[in-house]
Design a protein that fits this description.
The chain is of the alpha/beta class. Helices cover 26% and strands 24% of the residues. Helix 8 links the parallel strand 12 and strand 13.
């Protein structure tokens, strides 16, 4: 089984932002588990909202609002276990509010060896989205940024059931179904993700649900149309741990950031 954390080259102390739609939670869960099993220290958090599911229920969750000195409490928690979910406060029965981006530096100071995995974008569980003007919500520093977009969206209706911020697509698209080109548009179209990527980070395009030959063919089309934008382009079946990496010259044309 391939380790996605090794493919992306995650290092101790890295701040990793995960953005996009259609697989962010599964990707963060996988990375967190891989890193913990490798003996790394991991803090999972969000600068937006975080659903109370998966990791936030199965491992220790530290709610900042409950502690006067939360950095010390985080240090204490990480001394007992290698993976902790860190959130700002409870928000209804199924959600947490995330942290202020400025608090990421406090996490790094309290746990300098920790990999900080940050959900920096929300999609309301849709398979595809176009970011609003204020999104994603990055912290002061980002070492690696992973843009997740789902190949499972292809063939679905271009409607609110599957697309978050639909109006930002339909202002210029006329087709009724989502295609590979719709995903390309979310990256390089007006208002898309490409110009919002951190300029100093190692930027990765991760196309989730890459579990059929047809979807992998669509991934190659997306890679070709977005070549030169990302340091790495990957399609994968996150749950199974199966990944395909774009060949140099087929989308992966940026020099790799040294770590």
């Amino acid at each position: 089984m391939n380790l996605l954390s090794n493919i992306i080259g995650v290092q101790s102390g890295d701040i990793v932002a995960v953005i996009g739609a259609g697989g962010k939670h599964s990707l963060m869960s996988r990375l967190g588990q891989e890193l913990e099993e490798a003996g790394r220290v991991v803090v999972l958090t969000s600068t937006t909202n975080l659903h109370r599911s998966g990791d936030s229920e199965s491992i220790s969750t530290l709610v900042l609002k409950r502690y006067h000195n939360w950095p010390q409490q985080l240090t204490n928690e990480l001394a007992q276990r290698h993976r902790v979910v860190l959130v700002g406060r409870e928000w209804g029965p199924n959600m947490y509010r995330g942290i202020n981006p400025s608090q990421i530096e406090q996490i790094s100071a309290a746990a300098p060896e920790a990999v900080i995995l940050i959900k920096a974008d929300g999609a309301r569980k849709r398979l595809l989205k176009m970011p609003a003007e204020s999104e994603p919500v990055f912290g002061p520093q980002t070492d690696r940024c992973i843009l997740v977009l789902s190949l499972a969206a292809i063939g679905k209706p271009l409607g609110p059931q599957y697309v978050h911020r639909l109006d930002r697509f339909t202002q210029r698209l006329t087709q009724s179904d989502i295609t590979a080109q719709t995903i390309v548009d979310a990256i390089i179209g007006p208002g898309g993700y490409a110009p919002r990527l951190p300029h100093t980070s190692h930027n990765v395009l991760y196309l989730s649900h890459g579990d059929t030959p047809e979807r992998l063919e669509a991934a190659r089309h997306i890679w070709d149309q977005t070549r030169g934008i990302f340091h790495q382009q990957i399609a994968g079946d996150t749950m199974r741990g199966s990944f395909v990496i774009a060949e140099p010259g087929s989308g992966n044309t940026c020099p790799k950031k040294s770590s």
